[in-house]
Amino acid sequence: TLASLGDLAGAVDRVRRWLDLDADPAAVADVLAADPLLAPLVEAHPGLRVPGTVDGAELALRTVLGQQVSVAAARTLTARLVTLGTPTPWGLSSFPTPAAIRDAGVDALRSFGLTEGRARALHALASALADGLDLGPGADREAARVALGGLPGVGP
User: Fold this and answer.
1) Longest dimension (CA), the chain
2) How many CB atoms lie under 10 A from the CB of residue 49?
3) Residues ≥6 apart with Cβ < 8 Å to 77
4) If you average pLDDT over residues 62-88, what whole number do you get?
5) Mean pLDDT of the region 76-86
6) What are phi and psi of 48, to 5 degrees?
7) What backbone phi and psi angles, to 5 degrees, belong to 125?
8) Is the pLDDT of residue 106 over 80?
9) Given phi > 0 = left and psi -120 to 50 = alpha, else beta, which region is 68?
10) Which of 76, 78, 75, 68 is nearest to 153 (CA)?
11) What's the rounded Cα separation, in Å, for the pair 57 and 94?
12) DSSP assignment letter at 83
């Protein structure tokens, strides 16, 4: 739901980025088809895109949450974490903000079934994001890589 018509352009921009709609599939196919391992896949699935993400912070948090667990376990942990989010008019909750995760603390994260190490890593990442670490589309990728690499539980 958009609060005003003025929010439409930003919403369209996010969806375009999320679905990779501004990429030139022919140019991507030309580059990928030059690789002998990828060429048959490009031929079998022309125009296939890799979906992006609407929110870099959410993607990073979900990545830490889902490390070294099955997809089903990651889904369960994410559902528990979402209880820290804001309820929507549709009876769902939004993914929690980094500040909400930071403010919940390590003990609350542990109560969701996270190991001590994963809870600390998630809390450290949420704290960095709440303090201004930018993982958005215009972020300085090298600065983000260095900042992420300095967090506990985040490797190359």
Assistant:
1) 50
2) 12
3) 65, 66, 69, 112, 113, 114
4) 92
5) 94
6) -60, 135
7) -65, -45
8) yes
9) left
10) 68
11) 13
12) G
